[in-house]
Specification:
- This protein is α/β, with parallel strands linked by helices and 298 residues long.
- The protein has a single domain (41-291), classed as Alpha-Beta Barrel (TIM Barrel), CATH 3.20.20.
- The protein has eleven helices and ten strands.
- It has helices spanning 5-20, 22-25, 58-66, 87-99, 122-138, 157-177, 189-199, 210-215, 220-227, 250-260, 277-291, and strands at residues 43-47, 70-74, 76-77, 82-83, 106-108, 142-147, 180-185, 204-209, 231-236, 265-268.
- The strands form two sheets. It has an eight-stranded parallel barrel, surrounded by five helices.
- Helix 6 packs across helix 7 (189-199) and helix 7 runs parallel beside helix 9.
- The radius of gyration is 19 Å and the shape is globular.
Length: 298
Amino acid sequence: MKISSLTRREMIVTSAQAIAGLALSGCACPRSKRATSGSKGFKIGACDWTMEKQVNPACFEFAKRIGVDGVQLSLNTLDKQVHLQDPKIRKIHLDAAAKYGMEIPSIAIGELNNVTLKGNDPRAEQWVSECIDVCKTMNARVILVPFFVDGVLKGDKEGTDVVVEKFKRLAPKAEKAGIYLAIESTLSAEEHLDIINRVGSPAVKVYYDVCNSQRAGYDIFKEICMLGDHIVEFHAKDYDDLYGKGPIDFVKVRQAIDDIGYRGWLVTEGGKTPLGLEESLRYDVRYLREVFPPSLGA
């Protein structure tokens, strides 16, 4: 099913009108540390699992078709026994990325939702350590460290204490490599900051998912302001509809991101696919391009 030209025009006009209003709103956040002047804007990415190409070099060709700038890769999948720790698998991915002109902004360790960093299985900490090495060879600077499913930290003080100690062990290696360990979880901004402060390393950051946080009941716009430059990358997502049609107000997200001076990657993950997977992703990406353009002008 194709997106009609009328829908496309309406999407552009609506986005442009809303963004124009941002200039009138001013900066409400005191944590604006990054420079927002100049032409640098945003890059749009997609997760390999969202494209149903997990640890599969075909993700880059698919990514090219839907119009993104890069792919957030998965480190491993236990069911397939395929992983980026294997130099041969890495080379295949790097060759495919080069062929289709794709970047690799970050690598996610989704299996940590099952083999958790707060648990006793030594593989979890080992994967994070190995992923630091993988990132260095694949020109990625961010490791998404998730805490969902069996790894949820909310209300788990003991588990959080374990994670803090493991981050303390992992952070020096990440710092030396110039890699960020980015927490994605159901925790509030305050709880994320508590972990960051306890670890005490500039390598530990937040991977902020606007949809997950809104569903958890947080004011995502205040949270973005509170976290400021502790946010190293964003997931753009709306579980309920195509982007711009559901409850996530991406224009207001843009204002909050402007307020903290963030310029970088927004990675689309999940969401509804009423037009089919590829057409729905293409629609979402085009919507994001209007709200988060690659160049903002001088």
